[in-house]
From TrEMBL:
Species whose genome carries this gene: Putridiphycobacter roseus
InterPro entries: SAM-dependent_MTases_sf (IPR029063)
Transmembrane feature ranges: 162-184, 190-210
Protein name: Class I SAM-dependent methyltransferase
Keywords from the UniProt entry: Membrane, Transmembrane, Transmembrane helix
SUPFAM superfamilies: S-adenosyl-L-methionine-dependent methyltransferases
Length: 263
């Protein structure tokens, strides 16, 4: 397996929630900059079938799925999006409170217990790399045995060789720290704690930069994912597919890895 199990600050239970939630707000801005709504909408459309509910796991500060929903809703197919996270974001819960098409679950939802999550197509957007190997295996196994559609998207397509990653790490961290200073004014809602821990005591930019970089070698490659599903019992009624993520112009951005029941 090529994946390297580095740590990310936001995965530590002791990590202050105020820093975690402001980091995930930066991820929302990054997702929009990368136009991931377009890429994910293109990937998920063929799997919607007659399903009405999409359940996003590891939604952080809301992520990009609300924008994806706008792109995939049609007058014939009205969809509902349920956002969830191991560490639910209170500000995002409040943001979607009066939205009929979207709700954010207040209780913690662990992607490991896929079968306990609300019913609907499951999505994991830039979240699967947070799952250590045994958890990743159980999630895939649970999706297959419960015949659930599981749509995984990761923005890192082909992880760099680890040596190259280490060589560029200092420069990449500096770039991400500077970027986060410019991205902060575009986050919603802006809070005084966020401004304090960004511009005065820059814990948020430092942790964001590290987690962003660490997520690259943590991303499961195509070969990693294929070897994981090869370990599952063979099931002719369930299908796994790996595809390049594509924007509307056909440019590759990340990958989709999708498990779905065969009709
Ligand atoms: C990199 S953020 C991605 C957030 C969002 N999907 C986006 O694209 O903006 C990863 C999220 O996964 C969540 N997470 C980590 N482990 C999890 C688990 N076992 N179950 C559910 N969520 C988890 C973290 O709390 C964090 O909000």
């Amino acid at each position: 397996m090529k994946r390297v199990q580095l740590f990310e600050f936001e995965d530590f239970t002791w990590f202050p929630d105020v820093i975690r939630k402001n980091m995930t707000k930066l991820i929302v801005v990054f997702n929009k900059m990368m136009k991931l709504d377009e890429v994910i909408a293109n990937g998920i459309k063929p799997y919607l079938g007659k399903g009405k509910n999409i359940v996003d796991l590891g939604s952080g500060a809301g992520g990009i799925m609300p924008q994806v929903l706008n792109k995939i809703q049609t007058s014939e197919q009205k969809l509902h999006l349920t956002l969830t996270d191991l560490y639910p974001n209170k500000e995002a819960i409040a943001e979607f409170k009066n939205n009929e098409a979207i709700d954010y679950q207040m209780g913690s939802v662990n992607a490991l217990h896929l079968e306990k999550a609300p019913e609907g197509i499951k999505t994991m957007i830039n979240c699967f790399h947070h799952m250590p190997l045994p958890t990743a295996k159980s999630i895939l196994k649970s999706a297959q045995s419960n015949k659930e559609t599981l749509f995984i998207y990761e923005v890192t397509n082909k992880p760099l060789p680890l040596l190259v990653w280490w060589l560029f790490l200092p420069l990449s961290l500096i770039i991400l720290i500077i970027m986060s200073l410019f991205m902060t004014p575009f986050t919603k809602p802006i809070t005084w704690q966020q401004l304090l821990f960004t511009y005065i005591i820059p814990i948020i930019p430092i942790a964001y930069a590290w987690d962003g970089q660490a997520s690259m070698p943590r991303t499961y490659s195509k070969t990693d994912l294929e070897s994981l599903v090869n370990e599952l019992p063979k099931d002719p009624k369930y299908h796994w597919e790996f595809m390049d993520g594509k924007n509307n112009k056909g440019k590759t951005t990340g990958y989709y890895f999708v498990g779905s029941p065969v009709n």
